[in-house]
Amino acid sequence: xxxxxxxxxxxxxxxxxxxxxxxxxxxxxxxxxxxxxxxxxxxxxxxxxxxxxxxxxxxxxxxxxxxxxxxxxxxxxxxxxxxxxxxxxxxxxxxxxxxxxxxxxxxxxxxxxxxxxxxxxxxxxxxxxxxxxxxxxxxxxxxxxxxxxxxxxxxxxxxxxxxxxxxxxxxxxxxxxxxxxxxxxxxxxxxxxxxxxxxxxxxxxxxxxxxxxxxxxxxxxxxxxxxxxxxxxxxxxxxxxxxxxxxxxxxxxxxxxxxxxxxxxxxxxxxxxxxxxxxxxxxxxxxxxxxxxxxxxxxxxxxxxxxxxxxxxxxxxxxxxxxxxxxxxxxxxxxxxxxxxxxxxxxxxxxxxxxxxxxxxxxxxxxxxxxxxxxxxxxxxxxxxxxxxxxxxxxxxxxxxxxxxxxxxxxxxxxxxxxxxxxxxxxxxxxxxxxxxxxxxxxxxxxxxxxxxxxxxxxxxxxxxxxxxxxxxxxxxxxxxxxxxxxxxxxxxxxxxxxxxxxxxxxxxxxxxxxxxxxxxxxxxxxxxxxxxxxxxxxxxxxxxxxxxxxxxxxxxxxxxxxxxxxxxxxxxxxxxxxxxxxxxxxxxxxxxxxxxxxxxxxxxxxxxxxxxxxxxxxxxxxxxxxxxxxxxxxxxxxxxxxxxxxxxxxxxxxxxxxxxxxxxxxxxxxxxxxxxxxxxxxxxxxxxxxxxxxxxxxxxxxxxxxxxxxxxxxxxxxxxxxxxxxxxxxxxxxxxxxxxxxxxxxxxxxxxxxxxxxxxxxxxxxxxxxxxxxxxxxxxxxxxxxxxxxxxxxxxxxxxxxxxxxxxxxxxxxxxxxxxxxxxxxxxxxxxxxxxxxxxxxxxxxxxxxxxxxxxxxxxxxxx
Length: 865
Fold this sequence. Notes:
Blueprint (H helix, E strand, L loop, with lengths): L9 E6 L2 E6 L1 H30 L4 H16 L8 H8 L8 H32 L14 H13 L21 H12 L5 H17 L1 H14 L5 H10 L11 E4 L10 H20 L30 H6 L16 E4 L6 E4 L5 E6 L2 E6 L1 E2 L2 E2 L2 H13 L30 H8 L1 H8 L4 E4 L11 H13 L12 E5 L5 E5 L6 H19 L19 E2 L9 H16 L1 E7 L5 H6 L4 H17 L5 E6 L8 E5 L3 H10 L6 H23 L5 H13 L5 H8 L4 E6 L20 E3 L7 E7 L10 E8 L35 H4 L6 H16 L3 H11 L3 H9 L5
Parallel strand pairs: 6-10, 10-11, 15-17, 17-19
Antiparallel strand pairs: 1-2, 3-12, 3-18, 4-5, 6-7, 7-13, 8-9, 11-12, 14-20, 15-16, 19-20
């Protein structure tokens, strides 16, 4: 719903002569201002699109070129080699007095054509330069002569002062890997988790696929790669996300947390006012393309990916530093952050994106409200927004029957709202309550004012963090509108959180927005001494509009069933969050290792101790080096990683032998990571081949087997992309505890971790979040849309003597998931891996010297402000 809150000053005055329109001055002023805003918006978009299209050139370059041609004519030179005269002859003859004007027009036309050709040449040259990925293969801290030359040329051709979408025309297309290489890498990745018999069967299917179907399917992919912007991304969005009929809650949506130790204000309405204002400031900058494009992988960070796990970038030392700000990433995913809703369908959903929206939808105690975000003079101030949210909090009106649990429909399996045993529920909802539904779906985003507190507490820090994560991931099943691009959650004690729908983009984009929001609302907007937003309230502002839902009787059963399913799924999801403070990123760097690879090897060791076998591990890498790229999978469970884990669990193996195997595993992980980033991964290629086979109705048993198998361990590091917004040295408590996601397999784990702050002291914590679903959860739903293998036969046994960990192996291994147990294994594995290094041995002795009770108290005594 897009109508304004205020009634305009147009009113009909009936006279004896009939109806007469009395137009007041305020009406004329409002009409004038409305038209002026509209034209400004259109002109701004046109001008920004024009600047983006001609980048890396600028309009001044055309003026310079035109002036140079005119100067050459003045000096009786013809740089056009006669073309200007030919253009002049084609122009109409306006008489002798306009002869000079014809010459100027001909020169302007020639300058424009030459300018366009030069811009096209720059785009092609920059695209060819950006297709070079040799820098990814450079040794740690070194740079070859070709890379130095490439770096200089990219600096020359990249231009100055780019806008958000300036590089979109210059990004290369994602290449289609060789099908033989993809199959070879796939077989190599599944070898550690399959028995000999099962591996021989899989290899036979692979050889049959290469002989019979591979060449035809590959030809279609090559054709698409030349015709479409990206050969896989659109299919990934449609078939993995939009065609999935699973519930969005836990299965697709992910969450982001507030500052861990600090809550800037305990006033719920004030925190909501500043946060909403900051989000809308980000949208304003986004519309004007004032957000700088991300250029170069963030040093030592790796952004989140998709289907639960998230992506990464390798740490490359000096080379990484030089590349920062040079290699642009694709910005296409930014377009749908705001004003976007995933609308459910019978067979597939679709993304509805509006050009603009001037209100947010708010949920509180079972009621829905429409809150305008703009006044005639522009964006409402934070204090005015706080006033509106406080009015909602003070509103005593009760929720209407079934309105309180209406949002549970967005948490149900995607086919439930439109069809099922109760008929076309959502269709009836749209016909009977279309105005209220449009207000929610047409909002910039959704805001949930939660009635309960959340966040870290001094009394029980472990349980409070777990409850905080669970509230963001699942909530109560009816207090989030999961169809919206994201839901801002404001708890009663002022704590914030974000629940994000996954189909429209991957987490680096929403994470970039969230970092800006936290930094802006806390450090720039700020709060007064009494905890309220700065500024003055606006008493004349119209009250928030209460949305009324005329719910048909036939939808009541749908709501009840959806709520029951959402509560079951929420109850079957176990979340655990703990800060790890024994060492941080600085220790890993001093060991001359990639921090991501260090954590991944520790996770392999922890999972083996937890379950007693190896499994395929999902780790996502970004492919935004290419146009419209999204993610690729890094298969972290390699043969080298398994050899390292076995050595760590064998008491007969020395530390030096373990360290040697550890470095081999890290090198292998880095090689897989670089291949994935450069478009030479395995899983997206196999996924696209499978889609082509389905479209051609071609039987491919090998692809069917790959598609039917699942991941039991999904992992990701959470990025900190804008470190300049946070002063972690002077304000170390202003760090986020990251976020999390649900596992992609009902019998598996989802693990996310973050390095909070830089790496010079123990105040840098890797935080782990594990979300786990019990084996008996959701028996009525199909598997989640993960794409990858799961062992089809007996697991590889581990003929080992015992662990290096302080916990007895037999007492901790289990065939059932327990996120708290896995968290303990992760902590032990990190210390055990660190103990392979001299400095890590001192850390381990210091940590293990404490008793269990004392260690538990240490973890439970986190500073809380």
